Amino acid sequence: MEKITRSSRATDKEGLCIIAGKLVWSVTVTLHLLNDDGNCFDAFFLAAVLALKNTRLPEVTMTRDRILINDEKLRYLNVHHLPICTTFYYIKDVETPILDVNAKEERLCSSRLSIVMNAYEDICGMTTLGSLELEQAQVFENMKVALAKTKYITSIIRERWEHKDQIFSLLDESRPQVASKSNFIQDLNQEMELNRATHPSNEDA
Hints:
globular, 24% strand, alpha+beta, two-stranded antiparallel sheet
């Protein structure tokens, strides 16, 4: 995911610069898997891209030898395009691949092909896992399907982004339902612990 987002130039690297040659913002995306029902790779990829798109950086100014950070003035990280990952899962001796598999289907699959594209029909990356032998025509057919899915998901994101002030209000400290980011993270950690206690995994056992 990191390699594709870097090589496809989805984000504006120049926008991360604070002082040329001296200071730059470092952005890290950390993903936590709460529930696995299959096709996690596509979900992780989309979550990472949306996290970058919703990243807000504070205004930074220089006063003589002092750096001033204004947390009240935030600007969104400039994301040039949205790379969307579409993974095709293959079951042995079955020619037709499966999209958006669940956990049971994923366990039956012997290989997969992931195609990352954007709405401008650019191929941002492609990766395989397992023993996979495909004809050239099948690869092009998969690319058509991936492009259609990419345009559909991108249209939904752009539509929702127009109302981002209402939808992405979870991290807005001025909202009454979330007093602060620290309280939100604390509540999330408690919910995760409760979920582990209610539904223990094999590792917990």
